Amino acid sequence: MDTKLTTATLIGATGLIGSHLLQQLCADESFGEVWLIVRSDFKSSDPKVKVIELDFGDVIALKNAITGSDAVFCAVGTTRSQTPDLLQYRKVDVDIPVNTAKASAETGVQCFQLVSSVGANAKSRNFYLQMKGEVEEEVSRLNIPSGNG
Fold first, then answer.
1. Would 24 be classed as within a structural domain?
2. What are the CA-CA distances from residue 70 to residues 44, 76, 96 (Å)?
3. CA 115 to chain centre
4. In a domain, 146, yes or no
């Protein structure tokens, strides 16, 4: 069964990977709309793009913003230099992706894609790789489709 995807949602559009992914999603004719969920003001001149600004700590607002999406791409992340407080770092690199995946599962998203890291491992002694591994494990438990076929 071939399912047509029409609305893509991207979280992390301002980052290195997210900005490239945004260009690809806008160019992809499979998607009539590209929703960007952002933490702060973001401008796009592409007519396909709809920007939704919200507090990622508000899981109800996040779920409402995802509702109606066919595919969700989560490329959010930070760096230690930008976020030296480890609890804040975890909120960005763990809580946002996990809450996004849960909202995607609850709203029936047909395709969920997560940008993680090579070497991600929940048992790693490296803080970053451990966080990424925890996220991968949590997301995997949700059994969200990762493709549209």
1. yes
2. 21, 19, 19
3. 8
4. no
Write the DSSP assignment of 40-85 as a string of letters.
Answer: S------TTEEEEE--TT-HHHHHHHHTT-SEEEE-----TTT--S
CB-based contact 94:136 (threshold 8 Å) = no
pLDDT confidence tier of residue 143, bands split at 50, 70 and 90: confident
Give the number of domains in the chain: 1
Half-sphere CA count of 73, side-chain side, radius 13 A: 22
Q: Which domain holds residue 49?
A: 7-141
Task: Say if 87 falls within a structural domain.
Answer: yes
Supply angle C-alpha 90, 79, 22, rounded to 5.
95
Report the predicted TM-score, pTM, of the whole model to 2 decimal places.
0.90
Confidence band, pLDDT 50/70/90 cuts, at residue 4: low
Is there a domain that residue 148 lies in?
A: no
CA distances from 23 to 19, 70, 75, 124 (A): 7, 18, 13, 33
| List of residues 6+ apart from 81 with CB closer than 8 A | none
Q: State percent of the chain over pLDDT 90.
A: 79
